Amino acid sequence: EPVPETEKFVLILIISAPFNLEQRYAIRQTWLSVFINHSVAQDHSNVRILKDPINSTNNLLIQYFFVCGHSQEQEVETVVKSESMIHGDILRLNFTESYSLLVQKTLNSLRFASAVNVKFVVKVDDDVYLDVRRMVWRLQTTSLPDMLFGGTLLYNSPAIRDPGHKYFISYEDFNGTSYPVYPNGPFYIMSKKVVLEFLNASKNIRSFKMEDAYLGVLAKHLGIVPTQLDGEGTLIRLWLPRLERTWDDAALNATFAVGDSLSPERLFAFHERYLKLETGFN
Asked: Which Pfam families does this chain map to (predicted)?
């Protein structure tokens, strides 16, 4: 009989685009490098063994991928193929990148996750700084719902009816005046059970391009109450103020996911701050 796959603790899906080469480079040099330096590869370089922060005799398996579609520019495709061969950490989805297909990119990422024996699935954009060990510690030490769907929650986000707006939605796609509560798209975490429920519900509920709001619609349909992690580990804001300069250590130490819209330079700036924190993590 085949040996059952060992359950992974977290699968981290880093949402990127083929042309975001500098973002991926910055992540590999910053928060991903810290995680890699404090873990051991198992079988594949992107499957890591991390010591359980609350039980030193226990190991946790964590896997990560950059998730990309395809580019219409052959030069970009060639570079990404080479990058994938070197690092072995890129999951390519079979479609051409565009914002209108973001929800399909997300659902296909979740379909991939559904086949992985894993406890938690993280979706994080490539313009967010993620301290993996702090996140794992929080997941291990916090009482969380069995059906976890958490992040920085957005309440009463209006459905925008202006056809010229990036976030326009038709009444045919969504007929409410505001969306159900949902975690802000650049970072959220869900239990494997929620992944499976979302995929099943998505077969019957019409999708639309704002993937985070769409997942909120699925959650409401399923009776899943999103978990507020803002101030409890996440800080996700559009055009985040320059907190890497002004935040005190206590605020930084309490946060494991911060963004979004962080340039490579700002990812490195947050990285320098995290490295200097006087904590048991370093």
From this structure: Galactosyl_T
Calpha distance 158→35 (Å, rounded): 38
Phi, psi of 98 (to 5 degrees): -165, 155
- Under a CB-based contact definition with an 8 Å cutoff, are residues 60 and 136 in contact? yes
| Cα 208-214-218 angle, rounded to 5 deg | 130
Confidence at 4, pLDDT banded by 50, 70, 90: low
Q: What is the pLDDT of residues 171-209, one digit of tens each?
A: 999 999 999 999 999 999 999 999 999 999 999 999 999
Residue 96: CA count within 13 A, CB half-sphere: 4
Rounded Cα distance between 254 and 232, Å, is 7
What does the CA dihedral 170, 174, 178, 182 come to, rounded to 10 degrees?
Answer: -120
Q: Which two tokens stand for residue 127?
A: 């313009």
Tokens of 152: 């920085």
Asked whether residue 279 carries a pLDDT value surpassing 80, the answer given is no
pTM of structure:
0.95
Distance, in Å, from the CA atom of 262 to the CA atom of 85, rounded to the nearest integer, reads 26
| Residues contacting 205, CB < 8 A, separation 6+ | 217, 218, 221
Phi-psi region of 192 (alpha: psi -120 to 50; beta: other; left: phi over 0): alpha
CA–CA gap between residue 243 and residue 250 (Å, rounded): 12
d(CA 151, CA 229): 5
Residue 126: HSE in the Cβ half-sphere, 13 Å Cα cutoff: 23
Task: Read off the tokens for 143.
Answer: 């009482």
